[in-house]
């Protein structure tokens, strides 16, 4: 169980004191989060960390998960893809299933907390209860809504506009709405196995066990084997750079056993690098958090050359470890990388190759980028900042339209 | 003898929440179009975000507009003009808006081909909502003031030096106002008001203000 006090040595007392002060202003305010799954996926991961911390700070917080049959989740999966702009066959019956599942859940759930915080489109229709309860409702959208399928958006928009506020993870994910839109980026937990400090012996042991030689600078991308993460583009960029600098490319991804497309992408990657002794492809189980941590810490340069991206928190994970990161300017990556200040943003294979060369040849510059990147993450992408943003959001509900709020 | 202020100085601090407008610019024209209509708090956010958010960086880059047109549009000359805007001399955000618009108008009247930001590198316009919180520090003497100044967070310093003057449209920064009006320290107040807070980090600014106050405290009593 995470203890709030454990964050003091990492972020400092000024930050934790500020969180206590904000929570004090909310004392007695009750909150419930509603989403569609208790485990798996980023939302459940965030709520697992966030709900206990809010309770420890004296903000009584519950977490409800809506229930729905296979039919409902098939419909919401289609909605999800459609909101991402992927063409889907949506029928009138899909909307009927969505509405009836919301009504079923409204008979089961107690939503009379002061603030109801609804995550993603699956439970968004619960807003129907708002008028009867007279409490505050927030909708957090964890996906990119910039180019949604018009049919699904036309259905959802009137629901969303009944909320008191909406939350988006990145400016690029938002669209013009007739309701307040607050920017709250996701975060990494500095105490998790994936991000906590590791002693050099642990890093050495992990790399030895995984048979990763350290005779050359490691240039690493940690991502599942997915075309949108452009592993082939990474290999091409490395090959262009490799003509001028010495290094070893490390492509690390999760197991692709249960993902047919992932399996195919992995096979293509392996085929592309067959016989090359300066490229390693590593398939790790999803629980390999310490291994990923050690690999990131052992790397000289970290890449995130995605073609499309959600928020791309692997960038913050690497920056938190003080690593220079070259990332594509897609999704939430430009929030994490301020070009040439906290990392490098690129738009092409050639650009990525150019910057790999620069960062290998200029270790002092690479080190400065990494140091700036870690500071940037410390200030903006740690769990404590996320917690602060939630507390501010809750407080702001009492001051609609105000630019200055005196607490 | 130590002078006691007529009114104590209460150090406050602030935290901000960012609100999105849903507006984004891909070109200089779009930026100009939006700058004409956005609320003043949007102008403030994009001219001050780097000051408050990136204390670990050197004073550069000075504002979002300069950064964006330089890095994303490759318009270095325009970026330099934005960077050179002397924000400290503006008394209101509307005046600052007019200056930014004039720079863009001039650029567009002489620019050749118009560049478009690559996908994913658009400028998204947003504003900050500031939450003002008390701190345990207050001062009735110059000695107390120096003590508080050294203790408060940089967000407190930011509020008293930046937000007070331009966003809250007080005539001067809070420190100079209190020193002059409550303590009669007009020369010290003027010296602090003359500092350009935009060309240094907040920690650098804290050191300079503290240095001026310490110097004044070392002066022999009349």
Describe this structure in words.
The complex is a heterodimer of chains A (407) and B (222). Chain A has helices at residues 8-11, 13-25, 42-56, 70-83, 92-108, 130-133, 150-160, 200-209, 231-242, 260-273, 289-298, 313-320, 333-336, 349-361, 363-380, 383-396; strands spanning 31-35, 61-65, 115-119, 136-141, 165-168, 180-183, 218-222, 248-254, 279-284, 301-304, 325-328, 344-346, 404-406. Chain A is an alpha/beta fold and 407 residues long. In chain A, the strands form two sheets. Chain A has a six-stranded parallel sheet with strand order 2-1-3-4-5-6, with helices on one face. In chain A, strands 9-8-7-10-11-12 form a six-stranded parallel sheet, sandwiched between helices. In chain A, strand 8, helix 10 (260-273) and strand 9 (279-284) form a beta-alpha-beta unit. In chain A, helix 9 packs across helix 14 (349-361). By secondary structure, chain B is of the alpha+beta class. Chain B has ten helices and two strands; from the N terminus they run E-H-H-H-H-H-E-H-H-H-H-H. In chain B, strands 1-2 form a two-stranded antiparallel sheet. The N and C termini of chain B lie close together (9 Å). Classes of the chains: A alpha/beta (407), B alpha+beta (222). Chain A binds chain B through residues 14, 18, 21-22, 168, 171-172, 174-177, 180-183, 328-331, 333-334, 338-341, 345, 347, 371-372, 375-376, 379-380, 388-389, 392-393, 395-396, 402-407, and chain B through 13, 15, 17-24, 41, 53-54, 56-57, 61, 67, 71, 118-122, 124, 126-134, 153, 168.
